[in-house]
UniProtKB/TrEMBL annotation:
Keywords: Cell cycle, Cell division, Cell inner membrane, Cell membrane, Membrane, Transmembrane, Transmembrane helix. InterPro entries: ExbB/TolQ_transport, MotA_ExbB_proton_chnl, Tol-Pal_TolQ. Its main location: membrane. The Tol-Pal system is composed of five core proteins: the inner membrane proteins TolA, TolQ and TolR, the periplasmic protein TolB and the outer membrane protein Pal. They form a network linking the inner and outer membranes and the peptidoglycan layer. Belongs to the ExbB/TolQ family. It is a multi-pass membrane protein. The keyword Metal-binding does not apply. It comes from Psychrosphaera ytuae. Part of the Tol-Pal system, which plays a role in outer membrane invagination during cell division and is important for maintaining outer membrane integrity. The chain crosses the membrane at residues 16-37, 127-150, 170-192. GO terms for biological process: bacteriocin transport; cell division; protein import. It comes from the Bacteria. It is found in: Cell inner membrane; Cell membrane. This is Tol-Pal system protein TolQ.
């Protein structure tokens, strides 16, 4: 009797379709938890790096020196990557005297926006999988439940006298499929909502930095132009 009411016993006695549903939900759940732990680590590191770089950037450090420090590293991401690409493009345009000051700023801003899109894309990696698992898992579990209950009632129709002991295992295995669907869906939905909010905050930080850095470069270019005009007039 104990084997019949245990999860393993119900799984072994379930139909092939219900077993397939359970194994699918188990695989989705394991994959989701692996992604949850991995994305949690990635986002925590991104948030930590963003805070450290902002503190460093606004400490009054020389931008050329900061660029040299970042360029010397093997891996650069987040705000550091935005700053690196923006400053590199600005220095390149200015060195080659390509266009006006407005062209410098537009090129710099464009380079940072392109890099920001890549960084946000990296942060959002696998989040769509969590959203999909959260959406479809309950329906997969419900399909297993419906199939299991249908088989249970079909089996009842083949006997003269139906008892609760005959129908209970079939209904139990069917309900386990629903429970597994919810077990896979709930953590995925919670994690997706949390991670999406954190990515949105990081993206906001990237956008703010892009605008602030562009303003700093604009002030520098404007100051240089004004200085040149004063020297020419003199």
């Amino acid at each position: 009797m104990q084997a019949e009411i245990s999860f393993w016993g119900l799984f072994l006695e379930a139909s092939f379709i219900v077993q397939l549903v359970m194994l699918t939900l188990l695989g989705l759940s394991i994959s989701s938890w692996a992604i949850i732990f991995q994305r949690r680590k990635v986002l925590a590191e991104a948030e930590n790096k963003t805070k450290k770089f902002e503190d460093r950037f606004w400490s009054g450090v020389d931008l050329s020196r900061l660029y040299s420090e970042i360029t010397a590293r093997q891996t650069v991401d987040g705000l550091e990557a935005l700053f690196k690409d923006g400053f590199k493009e600005f220095a390149r345009l200015k060195k080659n005297s390509i266009g006006t000051a407005q062209v410098y700023l537009e090129g710099t801003h464009r380079a940072m926006r392109v890099r920001m899109s890549r960084e946000v894309e990296d942060l959002e990696r696998h989040l769509s999988f969590l959203a999909s698992v959260g959406s479809i898992s309950p329906y997969i579990g419900l399909f297993g439940t419906v199939w299991g209950i249908m088989n249970a009632f079909l089996a009842l129709g083949e006997v003269q006298q139906a008892t609760l002991n005959m129908v209970a295992p079939g209904i139990a295995e069917a309900l386990i499929a629903t429970a597994m669907g919810l077990f896979a869906a709930i953590p995925s939905v919670l994690a997706y909502n949390s991670f999406a909010h954190r990515v949105e905050k990081l993206e906001g930080s990237y956008i703010n930095f892009t605008e602030e850095f562009s303003n700093i470069l604009h002030r520098q270019v404007t100051a240089n132009v004004n200085t040149s005009n004063v020297n020419t007039s003199a």
